[in-house]
Amino acid sequence: MGMFRISLVLLAQAVVLSGCYIVPVRGPDGTVMYDHYPLPPVGAPMPMAVPAPGPAPAGQMPAVLTARLYPSNDLAAQTGIVTGTVTNMMTGKGRFQVNYMGEVLTGEATRVSNEDKRGVANAYSPRGTYMSCDYQMTTPYQGTGDCRFSNGATYTLHLGGN
Q1: All structural domains of the chain
Q2: How many angstroms separate the CA atoms of 43 and 26, rounded?
Q3: pLDDT in the model for residue 88
């Protein structure tokens, strides 16, 4: 009877966690179209292929960058490397998303100084976990920085460079 109960609990979790979400996308004529994207497994990075409102400068397309966060204190070492994505809109703004301990944190990245390409990024999850990062881009496709989570975990951030 114990194995049946465990199997039933695992099956229920799989059904609950296998949902999808709706993401608005702007068509070529500016109208909003809706499509669904299946959720990746827990622990996998969430792709951010949907551009934020506002066009990129002429000739520049948004770039999706991999975000890798490497532990820099003992608390962060308990989770290991954390991954996510940043969509650089090429306008000084970006969309930031990371999967941290089973929670998806989403937010934005904003350039605060165009001269040295320095910026800040913040993300939040519906469960209340949040993070903030300071970063510096060396190119529109690569950069580094530091991130702090609401539980005190700190990470060194590497953007792009795939």
Answers
A1: 42-50+61-162 (2.40.128.120)
A2: 29
A3: 82
